Amino acid sequence: MVKGVKIVIEILQPGYIFGEMAFLSRIPRTATAQAVRETSVGIIDRALLDQEYQNLSEHFQTIIEHLFCGFKRPPISCELQN
After folding, report:
1. CA–CA separation, 77 vs 62, rounded Å?
2. What is this structure's pTM?
């Protein structure tokens, strides 16, 4: 809500993901998701994602960081924290 008014930012289609910016950058999330019909949700464990990320080469980690920074929405800082 913004000043007491509910604002719909986006309606996601099947297969879409959300929460990745807060998850990857370790910043507080800036929105709340609410299902409008029956929904199945998958949860990715941070420890598992961190482990998989650390298994990537340094070069590939850099590519992912740059891709993530390209998709960020201002004013989120693009400094990823490990």
Report:
1. 16
2. 0.51
Q: What is the pLDDT of residues 8-20, one digit of tens each?
A: 888 888 888 887 7
Query: Which residues lie across from 5 on neighbouring strands?
Result: 2
Q: What is the DSSP letter of 12?
A: P
Question: At a CB cut-off of 8 Å and minimum separation 6, what does 64 contact?
Answer: 53, 56
One-letter amino acid for residue 24 of the chain: L
What number of other Cβ atoms are within 10 A of residue 28's Cβ? 6
8 Å CB contact between 46 and 23: yes
Q: List b or e across 53-75, with b for residues whose CB sees 16 or more CB atoms inside 10 angstroms.
A: eeeeeeeeeeeebeeeeeeeeee
